[in-house]
Amino acid sequence: MVTVNTNKGAMAAIQDLRVVGQSMAKSQAAIATGSKISTVQGSASSWVLAKHTSSDVSAYNRVRESIDRASATLDTAMAAGAAIMDLLDQMKSKAIAGTQTNNSAAVQAALSADYISLRQQIGLVVANAQFDGSNMLGPSPASASALGDADGNNSITIAGADLSYGTAVMQITSFSHLSAPNNASTALGLVNGTITTLGNQMATWAAGAKRLETHRELTTKIQMALDTSFASLNDADLSTESAKLKAAQMREQLATQAFSVANATTRSALSLFP
What we know:
Elements: H1 8-33, H2 44-98, H3 105-128, E1 130-131, E2 134-135, E3 144-147, E4 155-158, H4 181-234, H5 238-267
Antiparallel strand pairs: 1-2, 3-4
């Protein structure tokens, strides 16, 4: 039946063009942005989940940065501790030599001068053992602290130790010397005690460094899993979207032709009235 009031063929073609246009717009947006859910209108649940996952990835970046900073702070302290242990070994040799009662006054004075110089170097090492303003060896020592999770509810903290003269770890006093054999014996006892306490402290720091390393590895694995999850939620398959776009373009051409045919059918009604 030929009518002029309603052109069902044209209406169907227009509907097809509208659907095809939406499909083309979606594929073009996916190709342009590389994302299959660039707007919340596309898929609200997927968009929210992707944004939440992206937020977690960013949060774990902050966790890893805090771990790296804590590790650098602790590494600085351990390097300084190792340098002090080397100085203590040299001081021990001087102190042992200074306990000899048959040393001449000149030899005893030279040993004491060397010992004092080494002792002063320890103070310089402690003062300069800083990373980004944090010193784990000085008075009121800083701690190496890292975030334990992306929520900020937990942390990993490795405490510093005061290596100022005359403390629990640094038993050597700021005035110890080897001016006489009895002074050398006292100094030797302090050096030996410090070697023991500093060795224990270094072992504690080494355990803390291992803990940070393990936490970094775990954080990296979590980040990789989140990145993979985000990619599966967000990233568009460009080859698939390209194929969809080409198919939509073909459908658009067919719908346009169908629309032309439908309009031609209506115009043919005029031929009935010569």
